[in-house]
Amino acid sequence: MPRSATPAGRLASALSSMKLTLVCLALLMILVIACTLAQVPLGTHLAVERTIRSFLVWWTPEGSSLRIPVFPGGGLVGAVLLVNLLFAQFLKLERSRRKAGLWLAHLGLALLFVGEFATALFQVESQMPIEVGQTRDYSEDTRLMELAVVDATDPAADTVTSIPQSLLTPGAEIANSALPFHIRVKHWYDNSNLGMRQPSDPPSEATGGIGATLSVREAPVVTADDAQNAAAALIEPVANGQSLGTFWVSNALGAPQGFAREGRSWRLTLRPRRYYLPFSMTLKEFKHDIYPGTDIPKNFSSLVRLRNEATGEDRDALIYMNNPLRYGGKTFYQASFGKDDRLSVFQVVRNPGWLIPYLSCVLVALGLLLHFGVKLSASLKAVR
Amino acid sequence: MKGVNKLFPLVLLAALAACQKDRIETRRVAKEASPAMPGAAADGAARPAGLRWTTPAGWKELAGNGMRAATFELPKGPGKAEVTVVALPGDVGGELANVNRWRGQLALPPFAEDQLAGARASVRSGAGTVLVYDFTGTGEKKTRLVAGMIQVSGTMWFFKLMGDEKDVAAAKPAFLKLVEGLKSDAS
């Protein structure tokens, strides 16, 4: 019986078909257009997350909490395309030295898909704003928050317990062995409007800190690239059933709030999620060169001092456009600047699969060179 | 439809990766001077990013606290007055609500929307137009308030000079100079 006559054979044939490739490519083109258009209302990050880096594109009718899948996402199309490529390669491509170049090129292409999946799953992006003369050993993700509960009793150093945003859900009781109390989460707002309390406002739910003088109202989440949400949480530290105060914390609020308990001083801050580094960087100099007679930027560069106590490394590094610093599994790109050129902002990317696209491009190039080299050689032989 | 996602073990990997990221962590760190303020780009910067100003001669800028981005100590006068700078995200209730909050602080009756234009002065600064209001209380010991508001990059900035009427009158020219000299700190 021919292979295509069995159900498995028919499935294999369908999965290896060129028609499937074309459908997938068409779907990807639609997704790219949809993602580009979606960047206007959603911002770049959310548009990419919802269209390219998802398995399905969901739609929620206005005023409803229902989620309806309306289109395959980039993850699903990419996965089908990868399967299609592998089936076509193993079922249809001749296993001979003559086709070695094509095998290599297809392998490189498959690796490109794998690399994109690795990036989607494991890449962590954050930012490191650093002023001239300042030293930093962490980067921040401004899209995610964390509640920092700081034991500030020791005059020499702070002990910080960071509670990620995902755990700050209303009704949650958060306990940790580092804390002699637990944190009760009463409200969580992804975005809020903070204002001074008006005489007509209802009594504040906060009993301590600056929040008692504020009105805090939930606001629609903003997603534009240049907009930032003012996340807010109403939290209550509780020890042995006794409340230690109720506090509004927000990344939009300034000085920390806190309380004292049993001779220890505690501070509460809602801040962008921090990723600590096993090394530190000091910004020694920031340069913002412009073309003479214009305001057009020519170059941005940051001279940093890199110190790693574990390895004893203590050296300068220059980061400028298209010349990032790769160190400790992270890449530091020159991303922005401010404060009269006293502030430099690095985009910090941790992507364990960053080499995969380079490797796949090399494989594709080598494969094509080999394939066309073999063809050229055969043609020349035929001419002779 | 959820079943579609289950077809992909990569989703499971993603979930595992996500779980690994969301743990409570405790670490000992060097003390920080001050946490980030609204829009602040760096720790230790008591002044939020977004606006720059020049402190008028004779005034002393003190570090911010609470919601205050800065407080200015004024030269000693017969009474008391101070200037505060507050930065909050969003429109903070809008112009009318904030004007009426200020009027409430002086025990003045609230304005209606159509009364705003008559009381408003628009001051041009390097960061845009600052809406300035000047109100004086009606009590025996008159308290006066000169306040300006400007929105920069989604953050509303409030500059408020408040205190005894004579002290506020003496400080108002310098206050307006401070407001006129505001510059955007955008990159």
How would you summarize this macromolecular structure in one to three sentences?
The complex is a heterodimer of chains A (384) and B (187). By secondary structure, chain A is of the alpha+beta class.
Name a few traits of the molecule:
heterodimer; A: 384 residues; alpha+beta; 3 domains; six-stranded antiparallel β-sheet; five-stranded antiparallel β-sheet; 6 helices; 19 strands; 29% helix; B: 187 residues; Jelly Rolls; seven-stranded antiparallel β-sheet; two-stranded antiparallel sheet; 5 helices; 27% helix; 34% strand
What does this structure look like?
The complex is a heterodimer of chains A (384) and B (187). Chain A has helices at residues 7-15, 18-42, 44-51, 74-92, 100-122, 355-383; strands at residues 56-59, 68-72, 124-131, 135-151, 157-164, 173-174, 182-189, 192-196, 214-218, 232-239, 242-243, 247-250, 257-261, 264-290, 297-308, 313-320, 325-327, 330-338, 343-350. Chain A has six helices and 19 strands. Chain B has 187 residues and is α+β, with helices and mostly antiparallel strands. Chain B has a single domain, classed as Jelly Rolls (Sandwich). Chain B contains five helices and ten strands. In chain B, the strands form two sheets. A seven-stranded antiparallel beta sheet of chain B has the order 3-4-5-9-8-7-6. In chain B, strands 2-10 form a two-stranded antiparallel sheet. The chains are: A alpha+beta (384), B alpha+beta (187). The interface between A and B is large, with 61 and 56 residues.
How would you write the strand order of the largest sheet of chain B? 3-4-5-9-8-7-6
Q: What proportion of the residues of chain A form beta strands (DSSP E)?
A: 35-45%
The computed structural class of chain B is alpha+beta
Radius of gyration of chain A over alpha carbons?
28 Å
- What is the mean predicted local confidence, pLDDT of chain B? 78
Distance between the termini of chain A: 45 Å
Most extensive interface, chain pair and sizes = A-B, 61 and 56 residues
Q: Count the helices of chain A. How many? A: 6
Number of domains of chain B: 1
Estimate the mean pLDDT confidence of chain A. 90
The CATH topology assignment of chain B is: Jelly Rolls
